[in-house]
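Good day; I would like, with your permission, to put a structural problem before you. What I wish to show you is a protein chain and, alongside it, a tokenised description of its three-dimensional fold. Thank you for your consideration; the sequence and its tokens are set out here:
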Amino acid sequence: MTWLKKWEPENPQFWNETGSAVAWRTLFLTTFSLGASFATWFVMSAVVVRMPGLGFKFDTMQLFWLAAMPGLAGGTLRLIHTFLIPIFGTRLTITSATFLKVIPMVWLGFAIQDNTTSFATFMVIAFLCGMGGGDFSSYMPSTSLFFPKRLQGTAMGIQAGIGNFGVSLAQFITPWIIGFAALGAVVGSPQVFTAVVKAKEVTLDRSGGVVTDVKVSDEKLAAALALARDQTGRVTGIAPRDADAARDLRGTVKKNEQGELVDAQVNRVSRRDLWLQNAAFWFVPYLLLAGILCWVFLRSVPVKASFTDQLDIMTNKHTWFCVITYIMTFGSFSGFSAAFPIMIKTIYGGFDGAPDPLTYAYLGPLIGSLIRALGGPLADRFGGSVWTQVSGLGLIAGCLFLIFGGYLTPASVDQFGGFIWGMLWLFLMSGIGNFATFRQYPIVFANSSRQGAQVLGWTGAWAAYGPFVFSSLIGASITATGSAATFFWGAIAFYVVASLVNWVYYTRPGAVRGDWGTGRTWWDRLSAAERANYNHAKV
């Protein structure tokens, strides 16, 4: 049996006798599956930072595009998923979506083992990874139908928060699982990963901007290097002394128009085996298990509507106001999650002692996911719109901190700590907004549970473009100006607009569809007669 014969979550007797057990079972199974959705959606962001070391000849903007493409797909596919639950139900939609994600994981696992695989091929794979982001707009509407309004903030906070842990899962597990043959020889042989690190033992003497001498403090390194000098004894070049040294060292020089040496650098080259395919292949058994469990145990709520019926939300201005505020919250979370690793590599990767992006990248999504999972009860108690307002103001403050602190245009790696703290603050604020909005939107549409569920999917669709928009615009900002600051100024402008919308319509005293906590919403203020006669188009 796919469809439940009866579903009345607002009926206390039905909820206590039947509904609660079914709803929480559904939440557990769909959340388990949703974790894989987010992980596969963001796996490309964890993979791209290792691709140059495997011999892939993609430039910085191409790497940003690979991180961005799953976001383009995720947003587009969410527009479709928004309408699926009322037509096909939870069981068929969630099960099918889970099994489909096996395709890009298998393809990526094989493609990454060949460094001649074209950029276009990876763009197609990255687009298919977006299926993991697209089906979010089926999970959330489904969950909202299973729970009474008083528990929706808690239930959806748990699901979305734990589901969001999939982002951290992809970025945390990847550095570990690619380091050994975790899945055996069946998934392929290791690749040789090459890392290039500047040798700090080499220092330059300069006079008038021209290098006059090169000093090497390490005797073994000095013996491996050969210095070329002119008749005056001035250094004109530096290179490994022989073929053996050339395997582990690289010398680079920069000369002016007169042929004089103005800069030189010696890099140590290290090589190690890497099983980058494991980053994709290990999700395959997870997805297969999740898909089987969903098909066996999930059921569907009998709330049906045709595609045409569901278009009624498009004419309601509150639908689009919710889109704006959710782009601010989840759009920021997903966008920064995708861009964070490559931002670390691009902004701080050129310094001595540059940090490994994957050592830190998982922390942001982890913090955002944790607060989203734990914050649902706070939204139920104090009101979703109130916390959305906190989120908007916090995001503005975080962007200003990064810009004026100079952390987007660093002079040394010593500023990396400030950059990390600023970014983690942005993840915290976006996570607060995420648990807030999923309480807030069903309240905004309290007159129609079907519309409320649908708006969750529709807003999620637009916000899912976050990885595409953020990664591509941050990459464009860095490429055009040498800094991501331009992007962050634009983000501030948008956050101001979104926060004003939230304040005017949903947070200020007497707001037209305000949510100030359980029992204190705009809907609670209406009489029974007013609720019965309420027209969803009325403002």
Remarks:
- The mean pLDDT is 87.
- The radius of gyration is 27 Å.
- The chain has 23 helices and seven strands.
